[in-house]
UniProtKB/TrEMBL annotation:
Family: Belongs to the Mediator complex subunit 11 family.
Name of encoding gene: MED11
Keyword Transcription: yes
InterPro entries from the UniProt entry: Mediator_Med11
Reported function: Component of the Mediator complex, a coactivator involved in the regulated transcription of nearly all RNA polymerase II-dependent genes. Mediator functions as a bridge to convey information from gene-specific regulatory proteins to the basal RNA polymerase II transcription machinery. Mediator is recruited to promoters by direct interactions with regulatory proteins and serves as a scaffold for the assembly of a functional pre-initiation complex with RNA polymerase II and the general transcription factors.
Quaternary data: Component of the Mediator complex.
Protein name: Mediator of RNA polymerase II transcription subunit 11
Length: 132
């Protein structure tokens, strides 16, 4: 199975989301057929059957597509978890951004300290050594 791009996966999930709304609408319409008085010229049993069939069709389609998404996540070695997600596991896989931010913070701290040392040298005449 070819690996989808992130955009494709997001579009697929968006389509699933839309179909979940349609699924709930079909369930609602099926229940309305059973609980409302029939309108003249309609067969409530046939209406119920049509909405129930649409419900089952959508449910089957959604289930298959969600399972496909899970398989693709597993193939990409992205952990599929139930409940809370351990952000540490995800971060430990690739922490380039974290390392870059840490380097920036250290550089900023170094610049601040060097500025403080330079300011102290200028006002007190003391020499302070800064290790490189």
């Amino acid at each position: 199975m070819p690996s989808p791009t992130a955009a494709t996966a997001i579009q697929d999930l968006s389509n699933i989301d839309t179909d979940i709304s349609a699924l709930l609408s079909s369930a609602s319409k099926a229940l309305q057929c059973l609980s409302s008085p029939p309108t003249p010229g309609t067969d409530p049993t046939e209406e119920f059957r049509a909405h129930a069939e649409e419900y089952h069709r959508l449910l089957s389609s959604i289930t298959v597509r969600l399972r496909r998404q899970i398989v693709q996540l597993q193939a990409a070695e992205i952990p599929v978890v139930s409940g809370t997600i351990d952000v540490g596991v995800l971060n430990s896989r690739n922490d380039v951004v974290g390392r870059e931010m840490e380097a920036e913070l250290w550089a900023e701290a170094r610049g601040f300290l060097e500025g403080a040392v330079d300011a102290q040298r200028g006002t007190a005449g003391m020499e302070v050594e800064v290790d490189s």
